Amino acid sequence: MSVTFNNRDPVYIQVIRHFKEQIATGRLEPGQEISSRRELANKLKINPNTAQRAYKEMEEQGLIFTERNLPSRITRDEHVLNAVREELILEAVDSFVTSIHAINVPLSEVLDLVKEKYENKSED
Amino acid sequence: MIEVKDVKKRFGRKEVLKGVSFTAEKGEITCLIGINGVGKTTIMNAIVALTPINSGQILIDGEELHKGSYEKITFIPDAITMLPQMRIIDAMQFMDDFYDCWNEKRAEEILSFFKLDKQERIANLSKGNTAKVNLLLGLAMDVDYILMDEPFSGIDIFSREQIAEVFTSHLIEDRGVIITTHEINDIEHLIDKVVLLNEGYVLKEFSTEEIRENEGKSVIDVMREVYQS
């Protein structure tokens, strides 16, 4: 596992984002056990207090849960999982729309291109 | 917590520390940053009383440094203080003889973490490995606070990475760490707090996550602002 962090966003937020991506793409499955805070800090080369902070936030957001002294796990809550997926899709679409809007292309032309590119990608 | 309060220090006529104040918490990594010659090493020396201060106060968990403090705090200088003809194992034995808080088990663990051969003579070690042995001798002490002077300077990238890994490992655990550096690049994500120094003053003291969260700035952004204004 290797993640490139930028230097201007809080690292704990970037860690949460990384987990959301892993959840949305299915690399982390519902109910799957995740690394301890210390292991995560070590793997991502970040400060252990930051890893702790990220886990705390994710627990508050219901992304992960911890039972007693057992390792934390990814939530099995469908609502939360769907919300993560939707959030990432919306974000990606928003950023696409922002950049394409600046170029001033008609929507129909864009949609055709999107379709074509998307289908090519699926064939890869 | 280590509290440095309005510390002043003169060498002859030159005032090197002109009233330096900051704190370093246990369980956090505090980084003293400054261009060379701003008094970083002098501050470190002052905290462990290797150099007397002219005024001000330094408290470690609320107490001024006394004999017992040496079981609580360790200072890792930027160059190894052991004799070159010693083997690593001799240096470890030396530490064991002199310090009650020397932790043999941890020392062995760090040896294998750094992949060092303890039969090797210090004189024959590469620069990177010398830095690692130097760190080992400090990290293997069961103390609450560790001060490191320029742990990353003058060594190759892979050694730097390995040393950086120490900071995220259980070897640091809940200890308080103060490191000095003039190069922040590869450790921005490893530190909790930054104290920016300039010619004997503290220009700014801040939490790295807070400055990113509240101002959207990297440590280097802040350094540019502070040093180039």
Automatic annotation (TrEMBL), chain A:
Protein name: Transcriptional regulator, GntR family
Organism lineage: Bacteria, Bacillati, Bacillota, Bacilli, Bacillales
Gene3D superfamilies to which the protein is assigned, alphabetical: Winged helix-like DNA-binding domain superfamily/Winged helix DNA-binding domain (1.10.10.10)
Source superkingdom: Bacteria
PROSITE patterns reported in the protein's UniProt record: HTH_GNTR
Pfam name, any one: GntR
Alphabetical keyword list: DNA-binding, Transcription, Transcription regulation
Recorded GO MF terms: DNA binding; DNA-binding transcription factor activity
PANTHER family in alphabetical order: GNTR-FAMILY TRANSCRIPTIONAL REGULATOR, HTH-TYPE TRANSCRIPTIONAL REPRESSOR YTRA
Organism the protein comes from: Oceanobacillus limi
HTH gntR-type domain location: 9-77
UniProtKB/TrEMBL annotation, chain B:
Keyword field: ATP-binding, Nucleotide-binding, Transport
Keyword Amino-acid biosynthesis: no
InterPro entries: AAA+_ATPase, ABC_transporter-like_ATP-bd, ABC_Transporter_VariousFunc, P-loop_NTPase
Matches recorded under PROSITE patterns: ABC_TRANSPORTER_2
MF terms (GO), sorted A to Z: ATP binding; ATP hydrolysis activity
Domain ABC transporter as annotated: residue spans: 2-224
This protein's record includes keyword Cell division: no
Entries under SMART domains matching the protein: AAA
Pfam family, one: ABC_tran
Name under which the protein is recorded: ABC-2 type transport system ATP-binding protein
Species of origin: Oceanobacillus limi
Organism ancestry: Bacteria, Bacillati, Bacillota, Bacilli, Bacillales
